[in-house]
Specification:
Neuraminidase; four-stranded antiparallel sheet; mainly beta; globular; 244 residues
Amino acid sequence: MEPLWHILFFIQVHALFFTTDNLKNIYTVTTENQVVKYDSTGLLLHSYNNKSLGQPTSLDVSNPMKLLLYYKDFSTIVWLDNTLSEIAETQLSPIGIIQSPVACLSQDGNFWVYDEADQRLKKINSQLEVMHESPTMQSISDKPIQTFLMMEENQQLFVSDSSQGVFVFDQFGNFLNKIPVKRITYFQVENNQLIYKKNNQAHIYQLKTMEEYSIELPDSAMQLQIDSHRIYLMQKEQIVVYPY
């Protein structure tokens, strides 16, 4: 279905990246390293800033009541509630994970990281115990994997490498397949579709049929999100929201 390109609203913000939850709330990570939450109409609700940890690397809001905010440079997860108040902080180095470029929530309440030292994905519980781990990435790919983004959806874990594609694992870390979508950074998985932006188009890749189609975007954008019958485009100084 082609969208009708009339603007619902826009948010003026200088953002590094953004995401949305299943309640249509919008979360931005600004160029000043601040996390800001807006409601479904663009009204500012809450904000959070941790000056000691620098720039956040990723934000997982798949559970709107418990957000995972990851700081790669310090291998630290900050847990936030729905008001962006800090619940807890998890440092990965005490459990032997010195460097992980990515982290995300698991749908069973645990979380995933990528341990670069032994090149394995690891699912970790609240007691900081490793529950499941993947095979070494060397056994999956003959090239080093440069992970950029990771997310779990429908009991599958999706890990992107912009030069190789999106690697797919099951909920126990077993490798399933690789989606040959290259030269992308941000992506999302929604309703058995992998959605990403390339050039000035939104691409929708059907995970079950491997069919793909594209939608021409009305304007240039740095990041795209399609969720809850809306299209969100992040531009240099604003996020624009369209019906879909």
